[in-house]
Amino acid sequence: MRIETRLAQAGNRKDPVTGAVSVPIHHSTTFAHPALGQSTGFDYTRTLNPTRKVLEDTIADLENGVRGFAFASGMAAIACLVELFEPGDHLVASNDLYGGTYRLLEQILRRKGIETTYVDTGDLAAVEAAVQPNTKALFVETPTNPTMKITDIAGCAAIAKRRGALTIVDNTFMSPYFQRPLDLGADVVLHSGTKYLGGHNDVLCGLLAVKDEQLGEKLFFLQNSIGAVLGPQDCWLMIRGLKTLALRMEKHQENALLVAEWLSRHPQVTKVYYPGLPHHPGKHMHEKQSSGYGGMLSFEVADESMVEPILGSVKLISFAESLGGVESLITYPARQTHFDIPKEVREAYGVTDRLLRLSVGIEHYQDIIADLEQALEAARSEVSVR
Ligand SMILES: *Cc1c(COP(=O)(O)O)cnc(C)c1O
Q1: Spacing, Cα 214 to ligand 1 middle (Å)
Q2: Domains annotated on the chain, with CATH
Q3: Is 228 in the pocket of ligand 1 (CB under 6 A)?
Q4: Residue 124 burial (CB < 10 Å; 0-12/13-18/19+)?
């Protein structure tokens, strides 16, 4: 079945007793044993819960993997995943990684003797050069947050495979609707389900999917041992959100392209980062490995002094962190998502003090553009008054 069908049918036919079309929420933390040495397949909810299992099977299926895992947040998923590594191991990661992942790698993993080298993973020669004998994984985001840099997933996976390392892809921005890294050679795909998969800014979630049974068994052990699992109510919200993922991604993308084109023509906007724009670096590579451009874009305004008035003037678009929900959101990466990354480091890859990031929602595109227009106008007049 095609992905639209699998999404719409998520959770259906999982309860043959009642025929429930919407998957039941199993709140029970424990499950009675039929007899000594017997199990219904469910014993204790941290290990396995029927509602969570539906979500975990769904993400495995959507990513064309064999095992899926659901966690209390994207960071909980990443924190569990990196427990695969030992002191003395080395990782190579995209240099404009999500700020929270960077913080985990730098402030927690490094303390435990696991070091990460950051490179432009869009440059395979740089990836190759960064790999050491003790490199255990490449950690890739494509497109990156917020400058939408593109990495060749298959190219990275080939380098990792030759060195016996894993390829991990954070697929939050594209979702499995537009991009399926496991098909391109990656070993682990991860999501902040909080974003597009949940899609309504109302549930925090992290998801992992793998295509190798043995790796799946290791992650199952870690997930149960560490215990940062997603609760059954939130699993249900995720399944509910996934049902409309295809429709939402199409609309996010349609709106994002129109907004990106409009911004590119605006005299106060000096740069627009969106992989659907003709001049976007890596566009060709992106089109080879993805079937869409998504709903995220960033833009640079002419002067840093415009940022505060823009954030203060938007009326429809909310000035809020996060992304991927039906409501349009605007953020200021330098002070929010990328605050933990040193200024010289972030500026080197384009996260300047003039950069704003937009998560384009599914409202009417003309209303989104009208809001940006009045906010840019308010900023321009405030700047010229000063
Ligand atoms: C939000 C985000 C995360 C972290 O997920 P949480 O659900 O907020 O813990 C990781 N990677 C990317 C790309 C994200 O956008």
Answers
A1: 26
A2: 3-242 (3.40.640.10), 245-385 (3.90.1150.10)
A3: no
A4: middle
